Amino acid sequence: MEATFFQNNIALIVAAAASGGILLWQLLRRPRHEIGTMVAVQLINYKDGLVLDVREGSEYASGHIPNSKHIPADKLEERLSELEKFKDRPIVMIHRSGVNTTGKAGSILRSHGFAHVHDLAGGIDVWRQANLPIVKK
Predict the structure, then answer these.
(1) What is the value of pTM for the model shown?
(2) Where would I find the Rhodanese domain in this sequence (predicted)?
């Protein structure tokens, strides 16, 4: 009887297995430290997370997340002492869309004992598209 069920429903079984495989592939494909805007906002508002913007100075000046700390990615290692007090807090790293400079910067932070480092998937452009606050200076 069981064999008949499988034979009669083979198309449904194959479709279910394929869709499950696609979902699993997308989950595994995404870098494990990347987060979306909703999670970022929760970390910032409820977990006292630090927003660390690692873009260049002109990019930061053109618009950044309120209360973010700006340290360009290429200066991060020499300015680590500025971040010591945030070692046990979540850090949400912001980069320019299309140029993920947070990967290397995140590795630097993790190698120096920062346990909760996250990259905003899509960078500052995703933040803007979500109509979340931006300040210019």
Answers:
(1) 0.75
(2) 45-136
Distance CA 37, CA 131 (A): 10
Q: What CA–CA distance (Å, rounded) separates 134 from 66?
A: 6
Amino acid type, 51: V
The full DSSP string for 32-70 is TTEE-HHHHHHHHHHS-PEEEE-S-HHHHHT-B-TT-EE
Q: How far apart are CA 108 and CA 73, in angstroms?
A: 10
C-alpha span between 2 and 20 (Å, rounded): 22
DSSP state of 33: T
Q: What is the pLDDT of residues 92-111, one digit of tens each?
A: 999 987 556 667 888 899 99
Q: Report pLDDT digits (tens) over 16-49.
A: 777 776 666 555 554 568 999 999 999 999 999 9
